[in-house]
Write a structure and sequence with these properties.
By secondary structure, this protein is α+β, with helices and mostly antiparallel strands. The chain is 25% helix and 29% strand. It folds into four domains: 2-111, Chitobiase/beta-hexosaminidase domain 2-like (Chitobiase, domain 2), CATH 3.30.379.10; 117-483, TIM Barrel, CATH 3.20.20; 496-564, Immunoglobulin-like (Sandwich), CATH 2.60.40; 573-722, Jelly Rolls, CATH 2.60.120. The protein has 15 helices and 36 strands. The longest helix has 25 residues, at 439-463. The structure holds acetamide (ACM).
Length: 723
């Protein structure tokens, strides 16, 4: 028996050395994040799954750093701390997953993260997911070396954490009577009429916290205050300012009824915090602070008296008082607060860390005042935004955040002085689940971009590789998850394009990032053929559909369809007085005169130009004189997303006979409001025109009582059609 055992061990030993096996061409497995140093030492092959590992501690190394050396004779890991061991372990897992059955060449890896805070968020309030699913999410975080899981537990639409002292949070706040179906801005809104809800028991919370902790992942609970609190008010209406019947929200958005800053509210929240801190070892407690309209506080006698007694400036001062008071309580428990960037308004609480989501300005301001910051701007970190412009994408909240944009993001703003860089702890991807009713949909929306964010946060800008390099490794990872039954979005064969203009004034479709080894088929009004390997441009020469489809290794991507409707301004010279917002730049002004309409459902994609609080003022110059019958301007209409049609549209023309612009007396205006699109056709009937100016005035400040009240509305325009 003993001999048999020894023989088995010997065979294992020999196999593990893979004696005699070498392969000159064996590639290093695809790792994400790609280690800072990753070298092949020889072509000798080692079966890593069969070997023991020597671990040693070197305290001269930086926190979280690790070194792995895989040799025929041994595998060794050197680390400074337990996190280093965890990251080395995940690296070994990846080596196994992306090699041939765990057989890799002799190699050496050294790695350490650039940012200490590498977070992913999950909203379980809009939709709740099983404990098993939350664990799957945590597994994915661990695999990609995130170290913080921001768990968004309370909302207007549901309270999801058991608080023993307040049982009505479980019986009332955890449930809503119905849920919105379709998009928030659909008119009229549709509801499913079904009771929905649930909560995590304290036992389940502990189970998840322990599970994450086994990977070294810290779970940060978020308990929203003073806003996003309608579900709590439904159970405990005495915590609101208004004497009314509150109901757990059935629609998405921001609600004006929020906690009233009474002693009763503070006692309630302090009790909640007492139970929360006993469940979460995290040094941070997130207290929300975002989107808390002040309408109820403005109308409340109690709030107005409190403002004067405390000598506060206004309701923002009252919000600051609220947050600072809760901060003191939480600090007293040995914990620190994190809040969304609205906590800057009215004065920032002393030790608070700011999560900058409404762009980067809040983060910059906080860092400049010596506060720690976690960057999570909507533009680069909101994984509830569309990830592809393909029309077959499932319904999402809006926006457009493709993989490349996440990959190329730098959490440290260019405009932040180097002296303050140390306050930027890192970044986080946010997964708000209004439009993710199932965990399948969470996987679809979150994971792809999470992989890009992993490398972004681990390597930082200075060490980051080219996107094309990342894409090769990313493709291996996505294929792996697909094979493992994970519902990850796999758009690597979707073709992205831009519309550009050549020097001779012709318009063409230019494919971006031609995918290595992929075959591309084009079908256009003039032909169907495969593009040559070097061919990346295709001329547009008339109305019709131009369709591009990539395929590789038996897999076909979704077709990219460019539907051109030729009109008289196609490809003319165009200049814009105001630039579109950086988040929605399209292909520049050319998007407005390329004959291609934006999606009629969503404003994401390159055909829509988004102007944030500014008008669209375009001047079009034609090569030769044209006769103009009408001009049609189409705008997106979605007040729930702060997007409004223009207040007015005015047109000036310049004709061959008169070398100055003259305002046109519009002969007739046809308004066509269809679902989310508002198009206005202006009848001009002008002859011999050489230039026109079109001014679409933005809506201005959004009125009270609407989403985004007090902010300037957005104006989205996709095309100026000249007929
Ligand atoms: C947020 O997206 N309201 C932080």
């Amino acid at each position: 028996m003993r001999y048999i055992l020894e023989l088995v061990l010997l065979v294992g030993f020999l196999l593990s050395f893979c004696y005699g096996c070498t392969d000159k061409d064996i590639a290093l497995p695809s790792l994400v994040p790609e280690p800072i140093s990753y070298e092949k030492l020889s072509d000798n092959l080692v079966d890593i799954s069969r070997k023991g590992i020597d671990i040693s501690i070197d305290t001269s190394m930086e926190a979280e750093a690790f070194q792995i050396t895989i040799l025929k004779k041994s595998i060794s890991i050197v680390v400074a701390d337990s996190m280093g061991i965890r990251y080395a372990t995940q690296t070994l897992r990846q080596l196994k997953d992306y090699s041939n059955s765990g057989i890799v060449p002799e190699l050496k890896i050294f790695d350490q993260p650039k940012f200490h805070y590498r977070g992913m968020h999950l909203d379980v309030a809009r939709h709740i997911f099983d404990v098993a699913d939350i664990k799957k999410y945590v597994d994915m975080l661990a695999y990609y070396k995130f170290n913080y899981f921001h768990w968004h537990l309370t909302e207007d639409q549901g309270w999801r954490i058991e608080i023993k002292k307040y049982p009505k949070l479980q019986s009332i706040s955890a449930y809503r009577d119905s849920t919105l179906v379709g998009h928030y801005s659909d008119v009229p809104p549709q509801y499913d009429g079904k009771r929905y809800g649930g909560f995590y028991t304290q036992e389940e919370v502990k189970e998840i916290v322990d599970y994450a902790q086994s990977y070294g992942i810290v779970v940060i609970p978020e308990i929203e205050m003073p806003g996003h609190s309608l579900a709590a008010l439904a159970a405990y209406p005495e915590l609101g300012c208004v004497d009314t019947e509150y109901r757990t929200a059935t629609k998405w958005g921001v609600f004006s009824n929020i906690y009233c800053p009474t002693e009763q509210t503070f006692s309630f929240l302090e009790d909640v915090i007492d139970e929360v801190v006993s469940l979460f070892p995290s040094k941070y407690i997130h207290i929300g602070g975002d989107e808390a309209p002040k309408d109820a506080w403005k109308k409340s006698r109690f709030c107005q008296d409190l403002i004067s007694v405390k000598e506060l400036k206004d309701e923002h001062g009252l919000q600051s008082y609220f947050i600072s008071r809760m901060e003191r309580y939480i600090n007293g428990k040995g914990k620190q607060i994190i809040g969304w960037d609205e906590i800057l308004e009215g004065g920032l609480a002393e030790n608070a860390t700011v999560m900058s989501w409404r762009g980067i300005k809040g983060g910059i301001k906080a860092a400049e005042s010596g506060h720690n910051v976690i960057m999570t701007p909507t533009s680069h970190c909101y994984f509830d935004y569309y990830q592809s412009v393909n029309d077959t994408e499932p319904l999402a909240i809006g926006g457009y955040l493709p993989l490349q944009k996440v990959y190329e993001w730098d959490p440290i703003p260019d405009e932040l002085d180097e002296a303050y860089h140390k306050y930027i702890l890192g970044g986080q991807g946010n997964v708000w689940t209004e439009y993710m009713p199932t965990f399948d949909q969470v996987e679809y929306m979150a994971y792809s971009r999470m992989i890009a964010l992993s490398e972004t946060l681990w390597r930082g800008k200075d060490n980051k590789l080219e996107y094309s390099d990342f894409l090769k490794r990313y493709t291996d990872h996505v294929n792996h998850w697909e094979k493992s039954g994970v519902n990850i979005a796999n758009h690597t064969l979707d073709l992205n394009y831009i519309i550009a203009k050549s020097d001779n004034g012709k318009l063409f479709i230019k494919l971006k990032d031609r995918i290595a080894n992929a075959t591309i088929k084009v079908t256009s009004p003039r032909e169907t053929r495969l593009l040559g390997v070097e061919e990346t441009k295709y001329q547009i020469d008339g109305s019709g559909k131009y369709t591009f489809t990539a395929s590789n290794g038996g897999r076909e991507g979704r077709p990219s369809i460019v539907d051109v409707k030729w009109h008289k301004a196609m490809g003319c010279e165009i200049a814009l007085k105001n630039e579109p917002n950086q988040a929605y730049p399209g292909y520049g002004a050319l998007s407005l005169i390329n004959g291609i309409r934006g999606s009629q459902e969503k404003y994401s994609g390159n055909e829509w130009l988004g102007f944030s609080g500014e008008s669209m003022d375009a001047t079009l110059n034609f090569d030769s004189t044209i006769d103009i019958e009408s001009i049609q301007v189409s705008t997106f209409n979605s007040p729930g997303q702060w997007i409004y049609p223009p207040k007015s549209i005015d047109v000036w023309v310049k004709t061959i006979t008169k070398d100055e612009f003259e305002k046109v007396d519009i002969q007739e205006k046809l308004d066509n409001v269809k679902h989310k699109i508002h198009s206005q056709e202006l009848m001009l009937n002008k002859k011999d025109v050489v230039a026109i100016r079109v001014l679409a005035m933005d809506h201005g400040v959004i009125a009270e009582g609407n989403q985004g009240a007090g902010n300037r509305a957005w104006l989205f325009i996709d095309e100026i059609v000249v007929r």
